[in-house]
Specification:
The protein has 414 residues and is α/β, with parallel strands linked by helices. Helix content is 20%, strand content 28%. The strands form eight sheets. A nine-stranded parallel beta sheet has the order 12-15-18-21-24-27-32-35-37. The chain starts with a strand and ends with a helix.
Length: 414
């Protein structure tokens, strides 16, 4: 068997709003996304992807893999849950078997005649999963299936260290380092090609490794403390404080103070303001002075609102979860455990609600649904500033998310 299929199960809903615009396996923790880490385990293997139907064409546009169709070898296919934080590969050979963890399918190793009947919709259906468990040999496994976004935040520091140790084989400094830059534990620092680090900056890897990608610009007097991950083409503004656990995606511009926060690609947080223990989507712009609280005055576990239910996260530190394409005005202040939806515009001088549905417009005098045509125009304009163009498939997904979240907004308003 030399074919795998990475799939989404019904728990993708726990990762909204981050997962509206992407399959769960595209979320990053440590140096890699779920999918990237799985693919690393299976060189020379045919890769298939399962995702929600409305994401299908966008995902196919972004990957050279088969999407929502199994092109397996004659020997069958190994299905792998996209929420699996994989550290060692699951064998592609052996008898047909279902790996289970707390009633969740971790993997399913099936022969060709059985795997070709599997569809993305079936793997989100609990009744079908029960049928699989009755039909095939079941093995209980101890596997790292991630349940919620805050789980990714809580293990992010550890995962950066693990990924660096496992996959970054040659520690080296290849960029342009100006005189007056200070390295602490430089054998734990990787700096990619064409990266510039200006005078007065300190990279402190005493408590964990620091990975900095290609074509990164680190402005003067910035401090980066490991473990930290800075992806390609990132700009770090002068006097930035990038603390342990900071995880910055491609083509981001960041400044101020960031601590143990994961930021997906193409997001801006250029100015002063604290951002801690948070997960921020792509194409977000945080206005100057935007801050979040990440600890309650009671020092107790933080509860969050997920649509119509309250969830105890069990976390003492948790800032906010923010979906793609959301914008904030200057001096916006978020309380501990805030959940902010996809494509929101937040212009409040007062503290925003802890839960804001997707496509919401909040200002001091107005709280309403954000017009999808207007927000789509803004999104395209922002992308054009980075020389990116929203494809037709991207636009269809954007509109599909608006339709999906319309009921969410109505229920919340009621």
């Amino acid at each position: 068997m030399k074919s795998i299929c990475v799939f989404e199960d019904n728990s993708y809903q726990n990762f909204l709003p981050l997962a509206y615009n992407r399959p769960v396996y595209e979320l990053r923790c440590g140096i890699y996304s779920f999918l990237e880490r799985i693919v690393l385990q299976y060189p020379d293997t045919e890769i298939n992807l399962f995702c929600r139907k409305y994401l299908e064409r966008l995902v196919a546009e972004n990957y050279p893999y088969s999407v929502n169709e199994i092109k397996s070898s004659n020997n069958g296919c190994l299905f792998i849950n996209g929420r699996l934080l994989m550290s060692t590969p699951i064998s592609t050979t052996g008898g047909e078997e279902i790996g289970i963890n707390d009633d969740n399918i971790v993997y399913a190793r099936l022969l060709r005649k059985n795997c070709l009947s599997i569809t993305p919709e079936k793997l989100t259906d609990k009744d079908f999963i029960c049928e699989l468990k009755k039909k095939f040999n079941v093995k209980k496994v101890d596997a790292g299936l991630i349940q919620y976004p805050w789980d990714l935040i809580s293990i992010n520091k550890e995962q950066i260290t693990s990924d660096f140790t496992t996959y970054i084989k040659s520690e080296s400094i290849r960029g342009n380092v100006y005189e007056g830059v200070h390295f602490i534990m430089d054998h734990q620092i990787f700096i990619g090609k064409n990266t510039k680090i200006k005078p007065g900056s300190v990279l402190d890897a005493e408590n964990g490794p620091i990975y900095i990608g290609n074509d990164v610009q680190i402005s003067p007097n910035s401090v980066i403390e490991g473990p930290a991950f800075i992806d390609d083409n990132v700009v770090i503004k002068a006097l930035s404080r990038i603390h342990a656990g900071s995880n910055i995606g491609k083509v981001c511009k960041v400044g101020g103070e960031i601590s143990n926060t994961i930021i997906q690609n193409y997001t801006n947080k250029q100015h002063d303001g604290f951002l801690g223990d948070s997960y921020i989507g792509s194409w977000v712009n945080l206005g100057a002075g935007t801050v979040n609280s990440n600890l309650t005055n009671l020092y107790g576990p933080i509860k969050v609102q997920l649509f119509d239910k309250i969830v105890d996260t069990g976390q003492i530190f948790l800032g906010m979860i923010m979906g793609d394409h959301t914008k904030t005005a200057i001096n916006t202040r978020f309380t501990t455990g805030s959940i902010i939806g996809f494509a929101c515009n937040i212009l409040l001088t007062s503290i925003p609600p802890k839960f804001i549905p997707s496509f919401s417009w909040y200002s001091d005098n107005v709280a309403r649904a954000y017009d999808v045509s207007r927000e789509l125009h803004v999104a395209k304009r922002m992308m054009a500033r980075r020389n990116k163009k929203m494809t037709r498939n991207g636009e269809k997904v954007f509109k599909a998310i608006y339709a999906l979240t319309e009921m969410e907004r109505k229920q919340y308003d009621n």
